[in-house]
UniProtKB/TrEMBL annotation:
A GO term, aspect molecular function: metal ion binding
Domain of life: Bacteria
Origin species: Actinopolymorpha singaporensis
Record EC number: 2.1.1.386
Domain Methyltransferase type: 309-410
Pfam families documented for this protein: Hen1_L, Methyltransf_12
PANTHER family registered for this protein in UniProt: HEN1, SMALL RNA 2'-O-METHYLTRANSFERASE
Alphabetized UniProt keyword annotations: Magnesium, Metal-binding, Methyltransferase, RNA-binding, RNA-mediated gene silencing, S-adenosyl-L-methionine, Transferase
Name of the featured protein: Small RNA 2'-O-methyltransferase
Gene Ontology BP annotations: regulatory ncRNA-mediated gene silencing; RNA methylation
Length: 488
Protein backbone atom coordinates (compact mmCIF):
# COMPACT_ATOMS: atom_id res chain seq x y z
CA UNK A 1 0.00 0.00 0.00
CA UNK A 2 1.43 3.38 -0.97
CA UNK A 3 2.39 5.98 1.64
CA UNK A 4 -0.54 8.27 0.79
CA UNK A 5 -3.08 5.53 1.38
CA UNK A 6 -1.26 4.29 4.47
CA UNK A 7 -1.35 7.77 5.96
CA UNK A 8 -5.03 8.19 5.16
CA UNK A 9 -5.91 4.75 6.52
CA UNK A 10 -3.93 5.40 9.72
CA UNK A 11 -5.62 8.74 10.31
CA UNK A 12 -9.12 7.52 9.54
CA UNK A 13 -8.85 4.16 11.22
CA UNK A 14 -7.59 5.84 14.41
CA UNK A 15 -9.35 6.46 17.68
CA UNK A 16 -10.51 10.00 17.00
CA UNK A 17 -12.04 9.50 13.58
CA UNK A 18 -13.18 5.89 13.11
CA UNK A 19 -14.14 4.41 9.77
CA UNK A 20 -17.87 3.79 9.86
CA UNK A 21 -17.93 0.80 7.49
CA UNK A 22 -15.47 -1.63 5.90
CA UNK A 23 -16.19 -4.38 3.37
CA UNK A 24 -13.53 -7.08 2.87
CA UNK A 25 -13.25 -10.20 0.76
CA UNK A 26 -10.80 -13.07 0.35
CA UNK A 27 -12.26 -14.12 -2.99
CA UNK A 28 -9.31 -14.37 -5.35
CA UNK A 29 -8.29 -12.19 -6.96
CA UNK A 30 -9.58 -10.12 -4.06
CA UNK A 31 -9.05 -6.87 -5.95
CA UNK A 32 -12.11 -7.79 -8.03
CA UNK A 33 -13.95 -6.09 -5.17
CA UNK A 34 -13.07 -2.85 -6.92
CA UNK A 35 -14.98 -3.96 -10.01
CA UNK A 36 -18.01 -4.99 -7.97
CA UNK A 37 -18.10 -1.70 -6.02
CA UNK A 38 -17.21 0.34 -9.13
CA UNK A 39 -14.51 2.10 -7.08
CA UNK A 40 -10.84 1.73 -8.09
CA UNK A 41 -8.55 0.39 -5.31
CA UNK A 42 -5.76 2.80 -6.30
CA UNK A 43 -7.82 5.92 -5.75
CA UNK A 44 -9.26 7.89 -2.86
CA UNK A 45 -12.68 9.17 -3.92
CA UNK A 46 -14.87 11.76 -2.22
CA UNK A 47 -18.61 12.23 -2.69
CA UNK A 48 -20.48 15.25 -1.42
CA UNK A 49 -23.81 14.65 0.34
CA UNK A 50 -26.34 17.16 1.63
CA UNK A 51 -25.26 16.28 5.19
CA UNK A 52 -21.48 15.89 4.74
CA UNK A 53 -18.79 14.15 2.72
CA UNK A 54 -18.26 10.46 1.98
CA UNK A 55 -14.75 9.14 1.33
CA UNK A 56 -14.10 5.71 -0.16
CA UNK A 57 -10.59 4.23 -0.03
CA UNK A 58 -8.85 0.87 0.26
CA UNK A 59 -6.65 0.28 3.35
CA UNK A 60 -5.55 -3.02 1.79
CA UNK A 61 -5.73 -4.30 -1.78
CA UNK A 62 -3.90 -7.54 -2.58
CA UNK A 63 -4.89 -10.60 -4.56
CA UNK A 64 -5.41 -12.48 -1.24
CA UNK A 65 -7.48 -9.90 0.62
CA UNK A 66 -9.07 -6.57 -0.28
CA UNK A 67 -10.85 -4.08 1.98
CA UNK A 68 -12.93 -1.09 0.95
CA UNK A 69 -13.59 1.54 3.62
CA UNK A 70 -16.42 4.06 3.60
CA UNK A 71 -15.90 7.09 5.83
CA UNK A 72 -18.72 9.57 6.45
CA UNK A 73 -17.84 13.03 7.75
CA UNK A 74 -21.09 14.61 8.92
CA UNK A 75 -21.44 18.39 8.83
CA UNK A 76 -24.06 19.11 11.54
CA UNK A 77 -24.64 22.65 10.30
CA UNK A 78 -25.21 21.52 6.73
CA UNK A 79 -27.41 18.69 7.99
CA UNK A 80 -29.56 21.04 10.08
CA UNK A 81 -29.98 23.47 7.20
CA UNK A 82 -30.98 20.70 4.80
CA UNK A 83 -33.66 19.30 7.11
CA UNK A 84 -37.24 19.70 6.04
CA UNK A 85 -39.38 21.86 8.29
CA UNK A 86 -41.32 18.85 9.54
CA UNK A 87 -38.24 16.65 10.04
CA UNK A 88 -37.42 15.16 13.47
CA UNK A 89 -34.78 16.43 15.92
CA UNK A 90 -35.04 20.11 16.73
CA UNK A 91 -32.94 22.79 18.43
CA UNK A 92 -29.61 21.83 20.03
CA UNK A 93 -30.02 18.14 19.25
CA UNK A 94 -29.42 18.95 15.60
CA UNK A 95 -25.87 20.04 16.40
CA UNK A 96 -24.89 17.98 19.46
CA UNK A 97 -25.31 14.27 18.67
CA UNK A 98 -23.49 11.05 17.78
CA UNK A 99 -23.89 11.25 14.02
CA UNK A 100 -20.26 12.08 13.35
CA UNK A 101 -19.07 8.98 15.21
CA UNK A 102 -21.70 6.24 14.87
CA UNK A 103 -23.40 4.44 11.99
CA UNK A 104 -26.97 5.62 11.43
CA UNK A 105 -29.52 6.20 8.71
CA UNK A 106 -27.14 8.82 7.34
CA UNK A 107 -24.58 6.11 6.66
CA UNK A 108 -27.29 4.00 5.03
CA UNK A 109 -28.25 6.89 2.74
CA UNK A 110 -24.62 7.65 1.88
CA UNK A 111 -23.78 4.01 1.18
CA UNK A 112 -26.88 3.61 -0.98
CA UNK A 113 -25.83 6.58 -3.09
CA UNK A 114 -22.10 5.86 -3.38
CA UNK A 115 -22.58 2.13 -4.06
CA UNK A 116 -25.81 2.43 -6.07
CA UNK A 117 -24.57 0.42 -9.07
CA UNK A 118 -23.14 -2.29 -6.82
CA UNK A 119 -26.49 -2.54 -5.00
CA UNK A 120 -28.23 -3.15 -8.33
CA UNK A 121 -26.07 -6.21 -8.93
CA UNK A 122 -24.77 -4.92 -12.26
CA UNK A 123 -21.13 -5.28 -13.28
CA UNK A 124 -20.46 -5.39 -17.03
CA UNK A 125 -16.87 -6.62 -16.66
CA UNK A 126 -17.57 -9.17 -13.88
CA UNK A 127 -21.30 -9.95 -14.16
CA UNK A 128 -20.93 -13.63 -13.31
CA UNK A 129 -19.06 -12.66 -10.14
CA UNK A 130 -21.71 -10.05 -9.29
CA UNK A 131 -24.32 -12.81 -9.57
CA UNK A 132 -22.36 -15.10 -7.23
CA UNK A 133 -22.01 -15.33 -3.46
CA UNK A 134 -18.46 -14.55 -2.30
CA UNK A 135 -16.75 -14.56 1.12
CA UNK A 136 -17.37 -11.19 2.79
CA UNK A 137 -16.47 -9.55 6.07
CA UNK A 138 -18.28 -6.36 7.07
CA UNK A 139 -17.26 -4.31 10.10
CA UNK A 140 -19.12 -1.37 11.60
CA UNK A 141 -17.02 -0.16 14.57
CA UNK A 142 -19.71 1.93 16.27
CA UNK A 143 -23.35 1.09 15.66
CA UNK A 144 -26.35 2.30 17.69
CA UNK A 145 -28.29 -0.86 18.50
CA UNK A 146 -31.58 -0.40 20.33
CA UNK A 147 -32.23 -3.77 21.89
CA UNK A 148 -28.58 -4.64 22.34
CA UNK A 149 -26.48 -7.32 20.71
CA UNK A 150 -29.42 -9.74 20.67
CA UNK A 151 -31.34 -7.67 18.13
CA UNK A 152 -28.29 -7.61 15.82
CA UNK A 153 -28.21 -11.42 15.90
CA UNK A 154 -31.96 -11.63 15.25
CA UNK A 155 -31.70 -9.41 12.18
CA UNK A 156 -28.49 -10.62 10.53
CA UNK A 157 -28.17 -14.31 11.47
CA UNK A 158 -31.24 -15.45 9.45
CA UNK A 159 -29.58 -13.91 6.37
CA UNK A 160 -26.66 -16.32 6.60
CA UNK A 161 -24.21 -14.10 8.48
CA UNK A 162 -22.01 -15.17 11.37
CA UNK A 163 -22.63 -12.26 13.75
CA UNK A 164 -20.30 -10.73 16.32
CA UNK A 165 -21.95 -7.84 18.16
CA UNK A 166 -19.68 -6.66 20.96
CA UNK A 167 -21.26 -4.10 23.33
CA UNK A 168 -19.25 -0.89 23.67
CA UNK A 169 -18.78 0.10 27.35
CA UNK A 170 -19.83 3.55 28.49
CA UNK A 171 -16.32 4.03 29.84
CA UNK A 172 -13.61 1.39 29.88
CA UNK A 173 -12.20 2.94 33.06
CA UNK A 174 -15.51 2.46 34.91
CA UNK A 175 -16.76 -1.03 34.14
CA UNK A 176 -19.52 -0.65 36.75
CA UNK A 177 -21.24 1.87 34.51
CA UNK A 178 -22.09 -0.97 32.13
CA UNK A 179 -22.50 -0.98 28.36
CA UNK A 180 -23.68 1.82 26.13
CA UNK A 181 -26.36 1.42 23.47
CA UNK A 182 -23.62 0.91 20.86
CA UNK A 183 -22.06 -2.30 19.54
CA UNK A 184 -19.10 -3.14 17.36
CA UNK A 185 -20.61 -5.24 14.59
CA UNK A 186 -18.67 -7.79 12.56
CA UNK A 187 -20.43 -9.91 9.94
CA UNK A 188 -18.83 -12.78 8.05
CA UNK A 189 -20.44 -14.98 5.45
CA UNK A 190 -20.64 -16.10 1.84
CA UNK A 191 -23.14 -13.65 0.37
CA UNK A 192 -23.75 -11.87 -2.93
CA UNK A 193 -22.31 -8.35 -2.55
CA UNK A 194 -25.46 -6.65 -3.84
CA UNK A 195 -27.54 -8.52 -1.25
CA UNK A 196 -25.12 -7.54 1.53
CA UNK A 197 -25.24 -3.83 0.65
CA UNK A 198 -29.04 -3.81 0.38
CA UNK A 199 -29.37 -5.58 3.71
CA UNK A 200 -27.14 -2.96 5.35
CA UNK A 201 -29.10 -0.15 3.71
CA UNK A 202 -32.25 -1.38 5.44
CA UNK A 203 -30.90 -2.76 8.70
CA UNK A 204 -28.56 0.06 9.78
CA UNK A 205 -31.45 2.48 10.44
CA UNK A 206 -33.55 -0.42 11.79
CA UNK A 207 -30.95 -1.11 14.49
CA UNK A 208 -30.66 2.60 15.28
CA UNK A 209 -34.47 2.86 15.10
CA UNK A 210 -34.12 6.49 14.07
CA UNK A 211 -34.36 8.19 10.71
CA UNK A 212 -32.64 11.55 10.39
CA UNK A 213 -34.81 12.75 7.55
CA UNK A 214 -38.50 13.14 6.80
CA UNK A 215 -40.19 9.91 5.72
CA UNK A 216 -42.69 10.09 2.88
CA UNK A 217 -44.67 7.46 0.98
CA UNK A 218 -41.64 6.75 -1.25
CA UNK A 219 -39.99 5.10 1.78
CA UNK A 220 -42.07 1.99 1.08
CA UNK A 221 -40.59 1.76 -2.42
CA UNK A 222 -37.08 2.20 -1.01
CA UNK A 223 -37.67 -0.58 1.50
CA UNK A 224 -39.08 -3.01 -1.07
CA UNK A 225 -36.32 -2.22 -3.55
CA UNK A 226 -33.59 -2.98 -1.02
CA UNK A 227 -35.49 -5.94 0.41
CA UNK A 228 -35.82 -7.88 -2.84
CA UNK A 229 -35.00 -11.54 -2.32
CA UNK A 230 -34.64 -11.52 1.47
CA UNK A 231 -37.06 -9.26 3.37
CA UNK A 232 -40.28 -11.12 2.63
CA UNK A 233 -38.94 -14.41 3.94
CA UNK A 234 -37.12 -12.93 6.95
CA UNK A 235 -38.56 -14.17 10.26
CA UNK A 236 -38.40 -10.59 11.60
CA UNK A 237 -39.96 -8.99 8.50
CA UNK A 238 -42.66 -7.23 10.52
CA UNK A 239 -40.19 -5.82 13.05
CA UNK A 240 -37.86 -4.65 10.27
CA UNK A 241 -40.67 -3.00 8.35
CA UNK A 242 -42.11 -1.19 11.35
CA UNK A 243 -38.74 0.09 12.54
CA UNK A 244 -37.59 1.13 9.07
CA UNK A 245 -40.80 3.09 8.52
CA UNK A 246 -40.61 4.79 11.90
CA UNK A 247 -43.57 2.80 13.25
CA UNK A 248 -45.91 4.77 11.00
CA UNK A 249 -48.79 2.32 10.88
CA UNK A 250 -50.16 3.43 7.50
CA UNK A 251 -46.83 3.00 5.70
CA UNK A 252 -46.15 -0.26 7.54
CA UNK A 253 -49.47 -1.80 6.47
CA UNK A 254 -48.87 -0.72 2.88
CA UNK A 255 -45.38 -2.24 2.83
CA UNK A 256 -46.45 -5.55 4.38
CA UNK A 257 -49.45 -5.82 2.08
CA UNK A 258 -47.28 -5.26 -0.98
CA UNK A 259 -44.80 -7.89 0.21
CA UNK A 260 -47.65 -10.36 0.58
CA UNK A 261 -48.99 -9.47 -2.86
CA UNK A 262 -45.57 -10.18 -4.35
CA UNK A 263 -45.68 -13.68 -2.95
CA UNK A 264 -43.35 -13.37 -0.01
CA UNK A 265 -44.41 -15.23 3.09
CA UNK A 266 -45.65 -12.41 5.29
CA UNK A 267 -49.41 -12.68 4.84
CA UNK A 268 -49.89 -12.97 8.58
CA UNK A 269 -47.94 -9.74 9.11
CA UNK A 270 -50.47 -7.72 7.11
CA UNK A 271 -52.84 -7.93 10.04
CA UNK A 272 -52.36 -4.77 12.17
CA UNK A 273 -51.34 -5.02 15.84
CA UNK A 274 -54.13 -5.19 18.38
CA UNK A 275 -53.65 -1.63 19.59
CA UNK A 276 -54.32 -0.12 16.16
CA UNK A 277 -57.86 0.86 15.23
CA UNK A 278 -58.15 -0.23 11.63
CA UNK A 279 -61.38 -1.21 9.91
CA UNK A 280 -61.29 -4.70 8.40
CA UNK A 281 -62.79 -5.68 5.04
CA UNK A 282 -66.00 -7.68 5.23
CA UNK A 283 -64.59 -10.42 3.01
CA UNK A 284 -60.95 -11.43 2.81
CA UNK A 285 -59.83 -11.71 -0.81
CA UNK A 286 -57.52 -14.44 -2.02
CA UNK A 287 -54.10 -12.80 -2.53
CA UNK A 288 -53.00 -12.58 -6.13
CA UNK A 289 -49.85 -14.60 -5.47
CA UNK A 290 -52.00 -17.50 -4.20
CA UNK A 291 -54.14 -17.28 -7.33
CA UNK A 292 -50.95 -17.40 -9.43
CA UNK A 293 -49.73 -20.50 -7.62
CA UNK A 294 -53.06 -22.26 -8.09
CA UNK A 295 -53.24 -21.35 -11.78
CA UNK A 296 -49.68 -22.47 -12.60
CA UNK A 297 -50.09 -25.67 -10.57
CA UNK A 298 -53.23 -26.51 -12.55
CA UNK A 299 -51.47 -25.85 -15.87
CA UNK A 300 -48.63 -28.21 -14.92
CA UNK A 301 -51.19 -30.93 -14.29
CA UNK A 302 -52.97 -30.11 -17.55
CA UNK A 303 -49.81 -30.54 -19.65
CA UNK A 304 -49.07 -33.84 -17.92
CA UNK A 305 -45.69 -32.83 -16.50
CA UNK A 306 -43.98 -35.35 -14.26
CA UNK A 307 -40.70 -33.51 -13.73
CA UNK A 308 -40.75 -29.75 -12.99
CA UNK A 309 -38.15 -27.06 -12.35
CA UNK A 310 -39.07 -23.72 -10.76
CA UNK A 311 -36.67 -21.14 -12.22
CA UNK A 312 -36.12 -18.23 -9.84
CA UNK A 313 -37.80 -20.20 -7.06
CA UNK A 314 -37.03 -17.66 -4.30
CA UNK A 315 -37.76 -18.91 -0.77
CA UNK A 316 -39.68 -21.92 -2.11
CA UNK A 317 -43.34 -21.13 -1.55
CA UNK A 318 -44.39 -22.65 -4.88
CA UNK A 319 -41.83 -25.45 -4.56
CA UNK A 320 -43.60 -26.55 -1.40
CA UNK A 321 -46.80 -27.02 -3.36
CA UNK A 322 -44.97 -28.97 -6.07
CA UNK A 323 -43.27 -31.29 -3.57
CA UNK A 324 -46.61 -32.05 -1.93
CA UNK A 325 -48.08 -33.13 -5.28
CA UNK A 326 -47.48 -36.88 -5.85
CA UNK A 327 -47.93 -36.48 -9.62
CA UNK A 328 -44.56 -34.73 -9.81
CA UNK A 329 -41.87 -37.38 -9.51
CA UNK A 330 -38.94 -34.93 -9.69
CA UNK A 331 -38.94 -31.32 -8.48
CA UNK A 332 -36.09 -28.83 -8.72
CA UNK A 333 -35.66 -25.19 -7.77
CA UNK A 334 -32.95 -22.80 -8.91
CA UNK A 335 -32.23 -19.24 -7.87
CA UNK A 336 -29.34 -16.79 -8.07
CA UNK A 337 -29.64 -16.11 -4.32
CA UNK A 338 -28.07 -18.72 -2.06
CA UNK A 339 -29.93 -17.24 0.89
CA UNK A 340 -33.29 -17.79 -0.83
CA UNK A 341 -32.29 -21.39 -1.48
CA UNK A 342 -31.47 -21.82 2.21
CA UNK A 343 -34.95 -20.54 3.09
CA UNK A 344 -36.44 -22.91 0.52
CA UNK A 345 -34.57 -25.87 2.03
CA UNK A 346 -35.84 -24.89 5.47
CA UNK A 347 -39.41 -24.52 4.21
CA UNK A 348 -39.30 -27.92 2.51
CA UNK A 349 -37.64 -29.49 5.59
CA UNK A 350 -35.09 -31.20 3.38
CA UNK A 351 -33.09 -32.27 6.41
CA UNK A 352 -36.11 -34.18 7.75
CA UNK A 353 -37.16 -35.88 4.51
CA UNK A 354 -36.77 -39.58 4.07
CA UNK A 355 -34.00 -40.65 1.73
CA UNK A 356 -36.57 -41.63 -0.88
CA UNK A 357 -38.36 -38.28 -0.68
CA UNK A 358 -35.13 -36.28 -0.76
CA UNK A 359 -34.09 -38.03 -3.98
CA UNK A 360 -36.95 -36.35 -5.88
CA UNK A 361 -36.05 -32.81 -4.73
CA UNK A 362 -33.07 -30.72 -5.85
CA UNK A 363 -32.07 -27.12 -5.09
CA UNK A 364 -29.15 -25.34 -6.72
CA UNK A 365 -27.81 -21.87 -7.45
CA UNK A 366 -27.91 -20.73 -11.07
CA UNK A 367 -28.22 -17.52 -13.06
CA UNK A 368 -30.76 -17.81 -15.88
CA UNK A 369 -28.65 -15.80 -18.29
CA UNK A 370 -25.88 -18.44 -18.31
CA UNK A 371 -26.20 -21.94 -19.74
CA UNK A 372 -26.31 -24.65 -17.10
CA UNK A 373 -26.72 -28.36 -17.83
CA UNK A 374 -28.67 -28.78 -14.59
CA UNK A 375 -31.56 -26.78 -16.08
CA UNK A 376 -32.17 -29.36 -18.79
CA UNK A 377 -34.09 -32.64 -18.76
CA UNK A 378 -37.44 -31.50 -17.28
CA UNK A 379 -40.94 -31.93 -18.65
CA UNK A 380 -41.83 -28.38 -17.62
CA UNK A 381 -40.16 -25.20 -16.38
CA UNK A 382 -41.83 -22.38 -14.46
CA UNK A 383 -40.86 -18.69 -14.74
CA UNK A 384 -43.28 -17.15 -12.26
CA UNK A 385 -42.85 -13.36 -11.94
CA UNK A 386 -39.22 -13.63 -13.07
CA UNK A 387 -38.79 -12.16 -16.55
CA UNK A 388 -39.70 -8.61 -15.45
CA UNK A 389 -36.71 -8.62 -13.07
CA UNK A 390 -34.27 -9.14 -15.95
CA UNK A 391 -32.64 -6.15 -17.65
CA UNK A 392 -34.08 -5.96 -21.20
CA UNK A 393 -30.63 -6.32 -22.88
CA UNK A 394 -30.14 -9.63 -21.02
CA UNK A 395 -33.61 -11.00 -21.75
CA UNK A 396 -32.41 -12.57 -25.00
CA UNK A 397 -29.81 -14.55 -23.01
CA UNK A 398 -32.55 -15.87 -20.70
CA UNK A 399 -34.61 -16.92 -23.72
CA UNK A 400 -31.65 -18.78 -25.20
CA UNK A 401 -30.86 -20.53 -21.90
CA UNK A 402 -34.42 -21.57 -20.99
CA UNK A 403 -36.12 -22.20 -24.35
CA UNK A 404 -33.01 -23.15 -26.32
CA UNK A 405 -30.36 -24.86 -24.19
CA UNK A 406 -32.67 -26.30 -21.49
CA UNK A 407 -35.59 -26.87 -23.88
CA UNK A 408 -38.27 -28.39 -21.61
CA UNK A 409 -41.47 -29.76 -23.09
CA UNK A 410 -43.43 -26.87 -21.57
CA UNK A 411 -42.57 -23.46 -20.15
CA UNK A 412 -45.08 -21.56 -18.00
CA UNK A 413 -44.46 -17.81 -17.71
CA UNK A 414 -46.34 -15.28 -15.58
CA UNK A 415 -45.72 -11.54 -15.52
CA UNK A 416 -47.68 -8.40 -14.50
CA UNK A 417 -50.14 -6.76 -16.88
CA UNK A 418 -49.01 -3.13 -16.99
CA UNK A 419 -52.45 -1.94 -18.18
CA UNK A 420 -54.02 -3.14 -14.94
CA UNK A 421 -51.79 -0.95 -12.76
CA UNK A 422 -54.17 2.03 -12.91
CA UNK A 423 -56.61 0.04 -10.76
CA UNK A 424 -54.14 -0.13 -7.85
CA UNK A 425 -54.79 2.80 -5.54
CA UNK A 426 -51.69 4.89 -4.84
CA UNK A 427 -49.47 2.99 -7.30
CA UNK A 428 -47.19 5.24 -9.32
CA UNK A 429 -45.00 3.51 -11.86
CA UNK A 430 -44.37 -0.23 -11.77
CA UNK A 431 -45.62 -2.68 -9.15
CA UNK A 432 -42.22 -3.43 -7.70
CA UNK A 433 -39.11 -1.26 -7.51
CA UNK A 434 -36.94 -4.12 -8.82
CA UNK A 435 -38.98 -4.56 -11.99
CA UNK A 436 -36.97 -3.58 -15.07
CA UNK A 437 -40.11 -3.39 -17.20
CA UNK A 438 -43.79 -4.36 -17.23
CA UNK A 439 -45.56 -5.38 -20.43
CA UNK A 440 -48.98 -4.53 -21.77
CA UNK A 441 -51.01 -7.44 -23.09
CA UNK A 442 -49.99 -6.56 -26.65
CA UNK A 443 -46.30 -6.43 -25.72
CA UNK A 444 -46.48 -9.74 -23.88
CA UNK A 445 -48.25 -11.37 -26.82
CA UNK A 446 -45.58 -10.06 -29.21
CA UNK A 447 -42.75 -11.36 -27.00
CA UNK A 448 -44.43 -14.73 -26.49
CA UNK A 449 -45.08 -15.18 -30.19
CA UNK A 450 -41.51 -14.30 -31.13
CA UNK A 451 -40.00 -16.68 -28.57
CA UNK A 452 -42.37 -19.49 -29.54
CA UNK A 453 -41.52 -19.09 -33.24
CA UNK A 454 -37.78 -18.92 -32.60
CA UNK A 455 -37.55 -22.05 -30.43
CA UNK A 456 -40.26 -24.30 -31.86
CA UNK A 457 -43.08 -23.85 -29.35
CA UNK A 458 -46.74 -22.99 -29.59
CA UNK A 459 -48.16 -20.61 -27.01
CA UNK A 460 -51.50 -20.14 -25.25
CA UNK A 461 -52.14 -16.81 -23.46
CA UNK A 462 -54.40 -16.49 -20.43
CA UNK A 463 -55.01 -14.19 -17.46
CA UNK A 464 -54.91 -14.68 -13.68
CA UNK A 465 -56.87 -12.70 -11.10
CA UNK A 466 -59.91 -10.42 -11.15
CA UNK A 467 -60.77 -9.66 -14.77
CA UNK A 468 -61.48 -6.10 -15.88
CA UNK A 469 -63.45 -5.92 -19.14
CA UNK A 470 -61.23 -3.17 -20.52
CA UNK A 471 -57.85 -3.70 -18.87
CA UNK A 472 -57.74 -7.49 -18.59
CA UNK A 473 -56.41 -9.49 -15.64
CA UNK A 474 -53.66 -8.31 -13.25
CA UNK A 475 -51.33 -11.20 -14.15
CA UNK A 476 -50.55 -12.47 -17.64
CA UNK A 477 -49.94 -16.19 -18.21
CA UNK A 478 -48.24 -17.80 -21.21
CA UNK A 479 -48.18 -21.57 -21.67
CA UNK A 480 -45.46 -22.63 -24.12
CA UNK A 481 -45.62 -26.23 -25.33
CA UNK A 482 -43.10 -27.74 -27.72
CA UNK A 483 -44.49 -28.48 -31.19
CA UNK A 484 -44.55 -32.07 -32.32
CA UNK A 485 -41.47 -32.93 -34.33
CA UNK A 486 -39.35 -30.32 -32.49
CA UNK A 487 -38.16 -32.63 -29.69
CA UNK A 488 -34.40 -32.93 -29.47
Amino acid sequence: MCRTFASLAHRRLGQTEPVLLTVSTTHQPATDLGYLLHKHPDRVQEFRQSFGTVTVFYPEATTERCTAALMLDVDPVRLARSQARNAPDFSLAQYVNDRSYAASSLLGVAMADVFSTARSGRCASRQELADSAIPLEIVVPTLPCRGGADIAHRLFAPLGWAVEAEPVPLDEAFAEWGASRYVRLRLTGVVRLADALNQLHVLLPVLDESKHYWQGPDEVDKLLRSGVGWLGSHPEATLITRRYLGRRSGLTRTALARLAELGDEVEEAVEPPEDEDVSQPEEKRVPLNIQRHEAVHQVLLEVGARTVIDLGCGPGQFLDRLVKTPAFTRVAGSDVSTRSLQYAARRLRLDRMSERQAERVELFQSALTYEDDRLAGFDAAVLMEVVEHVDPPRLEALERVVFGAAGPGAVIVTTPNAEYNVLYEGLAGMRHPDHRFEWTREEFAEWSGRVAGTYGYQVDLRGIGDLDETLGAPTQLAIFTRKEGNDD
